[in-house]
Amino acid sequence: FLVHEMIWNGPRMTRLTSAIQQLSDCLRSVLVRSGADVAQLDVSDLSSADEITSRYFYWLNTTSKKITQPLRVLLLLDEFQKWLAGLSSDQERLALLTALRHFNENALGKLDVSFVLCGLQNLRQMMKISADFANAVDPFEVRELTAEEADKYLRFRLEEELSIELDDRTRKRLIRLSGGNPYVLNRLGFGLL
After folding, report:
1. Starting from the edge strand earliest in sequence, which strands make up the sheet with 71-78, in order?
2. Angle at alpha carbon of residue 181, lines to 178 and 183, rounded to 5°
């Protein structure tokens, strides 16, 4: 797999054009890294969900035809709730979910795109809105880490990856403060930097 990780740290996306543009930019950056000559999608002149998704699907199909060798791509999209929550209508949210679902239809020739959406507290609600999307995803809920798992994670993340050594007392306090929540644990750990 060629992997592209994207963490959206900006404000909520309030326009479908922004969300579709971001999605196409993520995919394009991976494909360019593979050596493909991929044009940038521009949907800034469009306003209706149908027009935006129509142009996106045309771009995606045209782009996929340029891939001549089997290519597997994994898109890791963190804070995805910010992509959906600000969109003004169910139609716009469904359009974005349909754009993702299209990756799973095996309609892209030699291009195989998988995705992981993180940060969606309301994924099950989204799956109820769109049966197509529900059939295209496998939800997996990340639960709290045990004290042992959290300690192991902190040791790996801070000590091995970032060369920061913590004493037992500090690690235990971080684990207690986070309640084992991986997101909170990360925030507390990065607060040490």
Report:
1. 2-7, 71-78, 111-117
2. 100
CA distances from 186 to 148, 157, 189 (A): 16, 9, 5
Helix ranges (DSSP H) in the chain: 16-33, 49-65, 81-84, 90-101, 123-129, 131-136, 147-154, 168-178, 182-191
Q: Which of 36, 35, 12 has its CA nearest to residue 22? A: 12
Put residue 52 in one of left, alpha, beta given phi > 0 → left and psi -120 to 50 → alpha: alpha
CA 120/CA 42 separation, integer angstroms: 27
pLDDT tens column, 86-144: 898 889 988 998 898 888 777 899 999 998 888 766 677 777 777 777 777 787 777 88
Residue 113 DSSP class: E
Whole-angstrom distance, CA of residue 182 vs CA of residue 153: 9
